[in-house]
Structures are given as structure tokens and as C-alpha cells.
Amino acid sequence: MNNMMNVCYDNTFLKQVIFRIDFAKPISSEKIFCESIVAAIQTAYPRIHKEEIIRFGQIKVDVKRGAVSDCISQDVSEGRQKTFISENQMNKLVLANNYIIFETNKYGSYESLRTAALVILSAIFEIDDVVVARIGLRYINIFNSPDNAKITKTMFVPTIRATMNPKPLDLSDLYVPVRSITLTEYRYNDIRINYRSGILNQAFPARMKNDSYIIDVDCFVEGGISCKNDVYGFLEEGHAAIQSMFEKSITDDMRKIMGTKNE
Q: What is the Cα Rg of the chain in Å?
């Protein structure tokens, strides 16, 4: 599968997809909740679920002052947070003065997420002096056995299979394994990637069972980003990296269960 962007599946084990943008400084409520931005959001998330007052602040350190307790202060501001939900009530968007979060719990396709994000971000970048401090994209896959098949470790490549060991050390029974997840950190161009694999154990903190394997790929960039095309570029490059890593983690036996469909 050379073109990873064209790989999709009839059935996936995606538990959640999170796309988050943190602004370098809070945007005024008048600007971030203006009519055009809310209208753009409601093309994909038409229902307003709730609205809250939030507080956020910046810690300041005065190196000229003496005692440590005297040189740290915090400016606290008050803002708003609105939660919008999709028609199916499974997906939501959270907008606040200092961040926007796309949380997808019922995943359709990357194209649908990208389309919604581009419409909304285009409206946000109409605001003068928008600067992004951090962008993140995370895909969390939890592999539970479906009714018609059994998920086994052999459906993952050997290097990933090795992380899915419920008891990696030879210890006495006093040491009860409750979770086993391995983290590997990567750098891909300017993108940092946290790749987690192992056994999630949905019965945590009870004894670990071999029924919940996880592949969790979280990529992000940090720095002052003021061009919306750079945000779009991260979304494309980040998704391509995540999909490539996922494909290199599984075998054809897993693809058969998921139902490979090339578009």
C-alpha cells in the first residue's frame, strides 16, 4: 500500500480522534464567538450543548525579586467556553478564548473531519493577529474482539506484538500487572509524535486482561504559527504520518477483519 492516503476501512477500531489548536494568547469573546465563526461551526456541529464561564491565566516570574515565593505571580482572566455537538450527538467541538478542540467519537472519514476543520478555521483566521502556539492531532485505536472474530496479538507486526505482554517481568504474584503501554517518541520533520502501544486494560486498576490492545498515535507541533495554510499543512502531514504508522503496525489478518477498501 504505497499511497497511504487512499487506504480506508469499512470497520475500524478508532475509539476517538482529537484535533486541537491552542492559541498563543486568548482571543476576546467578542471576536472568537462572533456570528460568522458560530455559523461556520454549526455547518458541522449544529447544536449548542452548553456554555460555561472559564478562567485562564499566565504565570509570571520576576527574577529580580528575592524569595521564590515572592517572585511568582499569576494573572487570571475570565472567558467563555461553548460546546457544540453534531446531529448524531457523538462528535463535539469545544471553543474557548484560548483553544478549539474537535473531538470525534464516531469517525466517518478523514475527509469529513478536514472539511469541517477548514471551514471553521477559515472563519477564525479572519480575526486579525491570530497566532497558534500548538496544534495536535491524535488517533486512539482500541482493539476489542468483534462478534464475528477474535483479535489476537498475531494481527500486529512482531515489534508491536512484543509491547503487548501482560507480564513482561518475572515477578512474584504480589506484583499485579494492571496496565502495560509502551511509549516511543519520534520526530518527523517539524512534527513530534508520541506512539503508544500495548494493553490498555479496560478493567483498570483490576488485574490486566488480554482483551484490549491499543495503538495511540499523537502528533503535534509547537511555535508561533500565524498562517492558516501552515495549520492546514500540519493537518495533512500529521494525518499522513499517523496513517503510515498505523499501517506499519498491523498485518493483513487485521485488515481482513477491518475490511480494506481503497478509494
A: 21
Distance of CA 160 to the CA centre of its chain: 21
Q: How far is 7 from 52, CA to CA, in rounded Å?
A: 39
Residues in the chain: 263
Contact 76, 55 (CB under 8 A): yes
5 closest CA partner among 242, 248, 256: 242
Task: Indicate the pLDDT class of residue 55, thresholds 50, 70 and 90.
Answer: confident
pLDDT tens profile 73-92? 566 778 899 999 999 999 99
> Each residue of 108-154: pLDDT tens digit?
899 999 999 999 999 999 998 899 999 999 999 999 877 767 899 99
Short-list 136, 132, 126, CA closest to 32: 126
